[in-house]
Each structure stands twice: as structure tokens, then as C-alpha cells.
Amino acid sequence: MMQSIISENMTNNSENCDWYAHRSTARILMPLHYSIVFVVGLLGNALALHVIRPNLKKMNSTTLYSTNLVISDILFTLSLPMRIVYYALGFHWPMGDALCRINGLIFYINTYAGVNFMTCLSVDRFIAVVLPLRFSRFRKVQNVKKICVAVWIIVMAQTLPLLAKSMLEVDGDYIACMEYPTIDKNENLPYMLLGAVFIGYVIPVVTILVCYSGLCWKLHFSAKQNHLTEKSGRNKKAISVIFFVILVFVICFSPYHIDIIQYMVKKLHHHPNCSEKLAFQVSLHITVCLMNFNSCMDPFIYFFACKGYKRKVMKMMRRQVSTSFSSVVRTSPDGSSRDAIDNNRIVSVLLTNKLKS
């Protein structure tokens, strides 16, 4: 197997273009980035799972979509230690072809499961506020479960073919895993990737923007008729959820997909030279880092989408603030103790009011 990979990649690398000229910088910055993603993403999503798990029997549509998003993120973060080792070794994968394929599969599952379930969350919030009667059946738990199963089937159909071909590429003394140069020689690649971007990114983005626009229009129209409408907790929740979904798309998913689009369009017009290939490879690594950061940002969506998650986080914050001020009281001079206690009470009241809202 390894000999066939080597001989194949000797042909692929006949142009002698160094795709990994940034190796020395990447082996420092990329492990650092993914270490942060691993810690923050695992803790944030583990907390969400801890909050959701006791309430499985009381699940609603929003919680179901959030749960599937949590599972996808946790699965991804658990695979990150292998990627951290890979980048620390300078794009060298010593763990074999099978683990490389599985790792790549988990990466793409997380990407498109995240995109699809965030789209479902936006549509769910749109129906809850704009069309609560006409399409309420789509928010029933039994139907939402079927939608979630359908989403996973679509994601698997998109990603499982990746297991059919090796993702390893030999580059001198290094063995790269799941890197763009492995597939660069495919003549149909621009059409394949542009089609994948349209299905996996453009359609979800348009759907989310339509939901957000429709929601804002509905709330603006309702506020004119009844000023109490704009203060509705359900309306604020819907706006917050879709706003953070859009924010995740703008920060995490958009740079990667826009990068793919511009390079594939360039390939359709001419054969990129070595400097253009290197620039694309560097930009691809940067945008992939941003895209994987979605595992850290998703907990912000849960904060506004799931009451239990919000309540748990606020309770932890209140406990932490209370502990900090108690420590200040013990170490402060007598003259300042009363001020510290008063501040403690004020912060506790503010957090309590925030939790109730």
C-alpha cells in the first residue's frame, strides 16, 4: 500500500512545487490553535451535553437540533489530538492510512453536520415566530427526529466516499494527510468542489439569510401593532439564535468556502503557477483553522437556544463571582469589607435578573 502511494505521489509531484514552504511556521501556530480549539470546544460542548442529558424526555425541536450539533462537535474535538501531533511534526502523519481516512471523515462530518443543523435551527426559529400555526407540525418532536436522521444520512452520503481513496501523500521525508495536493491532479476537481460548495454552503447561507430577514420583518411589523411584542422572550431568543448562527457562518465557514470558490474559478481559466498554488495552500490552512473554530463558537448558540444551558452557565458565573468577592472580603482591610460585600450583592442581583430574563 505504502509503495503504491509513494509511486503515485512521485508522479503527482513532478512539477517540484513546494506546497509546504510554510512548514516551519505552521508546526508552531497550528498545534497552538488546535490545542485551544480542543480545550475550549470540548469543555463548552461537554457542558452542553451535561445540561441536555437529564432533560431528554422533555426535549423540544431546538434542543434536539442543538444535541446533534453537540454530538458532532464532541466527536470532532476528540479527533483533534491526532491532528495536533500531525501539525507539530510539520505535516507528517505516522499513524497509517486507515486513521488518516477516519480523521478526514470526522473533519468533513463535523463541517457539514454543523452547517446543516445550524440551518435547521434557523428554520426552526423562523417557523416558531413567523409561521407558528401553518408549519407547526415541523416542530413536533417526532418529526424533528426524522429530520435529524435525514440530515445525518445526507452528511454521510457526502462524506463516506472519502473512505474509498487514500488521503496520504508522500512529500520527501514527510507523509501528508488530508491535504489539497493529494487531489489537485483531478481534472474534474473544480466542478466537483464548486458543486459541493453550492450544496453544502451557498444553499444553507441563503436559507439562513431568508429566515433572518423574514424574522426581522415579522418583528418590525408586529412591533408597530403592539409594542409589547418586541419585548417577547421568544422573539429575542429567535433573533439571538439566528444572529449567532450567521456570525458562525461569517467567521468560520465563509472564508474557507470563498477561498475554495476563487481558486477553483482560477483553475477553470488557467493552470495556476507554483506561487499561486503555495498562496492557496497557505490560505487554505488558515481558513480551515477558522472553520474548525466553530466548535468553540457553537456553545454561544446553545446559550441562547437552550434555557437549561443558559441557566447552568449563569449559575456557574454567579458562583464564581460570589467566591471571588468572598475572597476579597477575607483579605480586605476592615474599612473596605463593607464595600466588597455591597458589590457582591449587586453582582449577584444583576446575574439573578439576567438569569430570570
From TrEMBL:
Chief subcellular location: membrane
Matching InterPro entries: GP183-like, GPCR_Rhodpsn, GPCR_Rhodpsn_7TM
Transmembrane annotation, as ranges: 32-52, 64-89, 109-135, 147-164, 191-217, 238-258, 278-305
Pfam family, one: 7tm_1
CDD domains reported for this sequence: 7tmA_EBI2
UniProt GO cellular component terms: plasma membrane
Membrane topology: Multi-pass membrane protein
Compartmental location: Cell membrane
UniProt GO BP: adaptive immune response
Entries under SUPFAM superfamilies matching the protein: Family A G protein-coupled receptor-like
This protein's record includes keyword Disulfide bond: yes
Origin superkingdom: Eukaryota
Keywords associated with the record: Adaptive immunity, Cell membrane, Disulfide bond, G-protein coupled receptor, Immunity, Membrane, Receptor, Transducer, Transmembrane, Transmembrane helix
Residues of the G-protein coupled receptors family 1 profile domain: 44-302
GO molecular function: G protein-coupled receptor activity; oxysterol binding
Entry similarity comment: Belongs to the G-protein coupled receptor 1 family.
Protein name: G-protein coupled receptors family 1 profile domain-containing protein
